[in-house]
Design a protein that fits this description.
Helix content is 35%, strand content 27%. With 447 residues, it is an alpha+beta fold. It folds into three domains: 4-103, Rossmann fold (3-Layer(aba) Sandwich); 132-201, Dna Ligase, domain 1 (2-Layer Sandwich); 207-446, 2-Layer Sandwich (D-amino Acid Aminotransferase, Chain A, domain 1). The strands form five sheets. An eight-stranded antiparallel sheet has the order 13-12-9-10-11-14-19-17, with helices on both faces. Strands 3-2-1-4-5 form a five-stranded parallel sheet. A three-stranded antiparallel sheet has the order 7-6-8. The chain is globular. The termini are far apart.
Length: 447
C-alpha cells in the first residue's frame, strides 16, 4: 500500500479522498492553489503544497508543479479526483516516467475512452450495445447526409474528443446538416483542439443510465449496479439516484454483467463508469468515464462498498476486497448536487458563507468541504456540496430527502437548494417518470 498520496484536486472530492486515505493509514498531501489555502482538506492533510495562483491552468492543471510537489513531499502516488487532470493520458504518462503511481487506469485506456469514436468502436468489440451511427469521424457533408438518411432523422453530431455537454448539435433534416457540421466542428476545435465529429441516432425521450464498474487490471471486472442521471440541465447532471426506477432487476443484472465482462476483457484497472442512453427497453453506449464520478456516493450507499478505498487498493497492486457475488443492493439512494448558484437563473454566487447547517440523521450523508466563514471562490466549478440520502425503498428515500433539504441552511450566498425542494415534491419526480429533457422543459415552464 502507498505511504503517502498527493491529492491533486479541491473541494468536496479532495476531502472525500483524504478521509479514505486516513482510514487506511495513508499520509496525505494537499496540493492547492492560493485561492484554496484555507480549504478544509488543506487544513486536515498531513502536508500541503501551494502549486500556483487561482487560475486552474496555473495550478490544478499545472502538471509540472504537481509532479514537483510529489517530489518535494515524497508522495508515491497521486489521486486526481474528477475533472482537472483525472482523464489526462499525458499526465498519467508523465507520472509513470517519474515513478509516481496514477490512481486510475492506464494512459492507454484513458486515450481509448477519451476519444469518443475509438470508445464506441471498442465498446462494439467488447459486446456493449451502441447507438446506431457512423463508424468513425465524418469528414464530408455528403457522407453525413447518407448516414443520417440510413439511420433516420433526427441525428446528433458529436465532437470526437467532446465532453461536458459541449460539441453537440441535433439535426432534424438534411437541409440543416451543412451548417450543423460546420458549427460543431468549429466548437469542437475551439474547445478540445480536435475538430473531428461523428454522427449518431438522436433518441427522443431517453433516460441517462450509467453502470459503475471496477477492474483489477488483471482480467477481473465487476459491476456495482447502475445510477439514473436523467435529471440534467445543459447535459450537466443535477440529481442522481440508484437504482434506476426504470429498470427491472433482470435488466440491471444483464447490462451490469455485460459491462463487468467488458472491463475484465479490457484489462481495465480501477473505477470507471459506462454510460448509456436507455429507451424502450434498449441500452445504447455513449461514453466511458475513466475516473471516479461526482455521483459515486449513491452507489456506495446502497452497496456499502467504499469506491475510493477500492481505487487505492487496486492502484497499489492489491486485489479488490470483493467479488461480484459480494455485491448486494440495499435500499435506494438519491444525490442532489448543491451549487453556489441562483436556483432559477443558475448565475454563480461566490462569496462568504455566513451560516452553514447541514442536515443529519439516519441515512443522511453530506459530502462538502465548506463551513461557516468559508469563502466560495469565483474561479472554479460552483459545486459546494452533495446531499446523499438512503432509505429502505424509494418512497422512504424521498421522504427523508425532503426533510433533509428543508433542514439544509446555507447563508450569505445563493444556492440551488430551493430547486431541489421543488423537485422532490413534483409528481413526475416522485413517480420516477422523467427523461433527459424533463428538467429543462420544467425550468422553461417555471420561467
Amino acid at each position: 500500500m502507498f505511504n503517502k498520496v498527493l491529492i491533486a484536486n479541491r473541494g468536496e472530492i479532495a476531502l472525500r479522498i483524504l478521509r479514505a486515505c486516513k482510514e487506511m493509514g495513508i499520509q496525505t498531501v494537499a496540493a492547492h492553489s492560493t485561492a484554496d489555502a484555507d480549504a478544509m482538506h488543506v487544513r486536515l492533510a498531513d502536508q500541503s503544497v501551494c502549486i500556483g495562483p487561482p487560475s486552474s491552468r496555473d495550478s490544478y492543471l499545472n502538471m509540472h508543479e504537481i509532479v514537483a510537489a510529489c517530489e518535494i513531499t515524497g508522495a508515491d502516488a497521486i489521486h486526481p479526483g474528477y475533472g482537472f487532470l483525472s482523464e489526462n493520458a499525458k499526465f498519467a504518462e508523465i507520472l509513470e516516467a517519474h515513478g509516481i503511481t496514477f490512481i486510475g487506469p492506464s494512459s492507454d485506456h484513458i486515450k481509448v475512452m477519451g476519444d469518443k469514436i475509438m470508445a464506441k468502436q471498442t465498446a462494439q468489440r467488447l459486446g456493449i450495445p451502441v447507438v446506431p451511427g457512423s463508424d468513425g469521424a465524418v469528414t464530408e457533408d455528403s457522407e453525413a447526409k447518407r448516414i443520417a438518411a440510413d439511420i433516420g432523422y433526427p441525428v446528433i453530431i458529436k465532437a470526437a474528443s467532446g465532453g461536458g455537454g459541449r460539441g453537440m448539435r441535433v439535426v432534424n433534416s438534411a437541409a440543416e446538416m451543412q451548417v450543423a457540421l460546420q458549427t460543431t466542428r468549429s466548437e469542437a476545435g475551439a474547445a478540445f483542439g480536435d475538430d473531428a465529429v461523428y454522427i449518431e441516432k438522436y433518441l427522443g425521450k431517453p433516460r441517462h443510465i450509467e453502470v459503475q464498474v471496477m477492474g483489477d487490471g488483471k482480467g477481473k471486472g465487476v459491476h456495482l449496479g447502475e445510477r439514473d442521471c436523467s435529471l440534467q440541465r445543459r447535459h450537466q447532471k443535477v440529481l442522481e439516484e440508484a437504482n434506476s426506477p426504470a429498470l427491472t432487476a433482470e435488466q440491471r443484472e444483464k447490462i451490469g454483467m455485460i459491462c463487468a465482462d467488458a472491463i475484465g476483457d479490457l484489462g481495465y484497472s480501477g473505477a470507471g463508469t459506462i454510460e448509456f442512453l436507455y429507451e424502450n427497453g434498449e441500452f445504447y453506449f455513449i461514453e466511458m468515464n475513466t475516473r471516479l464520478q461526482v455521483e459515486h456516493p449513491v452507489t456506495e450507499m446502497i452497496t456499502r462498498i467504499d469506491l475510493v478505498n477500492e481505487q487505492l487498493r487496486v492502484a497499489s497492486g492489491q486485489d479488490m476486497s470483493f467479488d461480484q457475488k459480494d455485491v448486494r443492493f440495499q435500499g435506494h439512494a438519491i444525490e442532489c448536487r448543491i451549487n453556489a448558484e441562483n436556483a432559477r437563473t443558475f448565475v454563480p454566487s461566490p462569496g462568504e458563507i455566513t451560516y452553514y447547517h447541514p442536515p443529519g440523521g439516519l441515512g443522511v450523508r453530506v459530502d462538502s468541504g465548506v463551513f461557516t466563514g468559508y469563502k466560495v471562490p469565483p474561479y472554479y466549478d460552483s459545486l459546494i456540496g452533495k446531499l446523499i440520502v438512503v432509505g429502505r425503498n424509494r418512497e422512504e428515500c424521498l421522504n427523508r430527502l425532503r426533510r433533509s433539504l428543508d433542514e439544509f441552511v446555507v447563508g450569505g450566498i445563493q444556492t440551488t437548494l430551493p430547486l431541489f425542494q421543488d423537485l422532490v415534491r413534483n409528481k413526475d419526480v416522485i413517480a420516477g417518470d422523467y427523461d433527459i429533457h424533463w428538467l429543462e422543459n420544467y425550468l422553461e415552464k417555471m420561467g
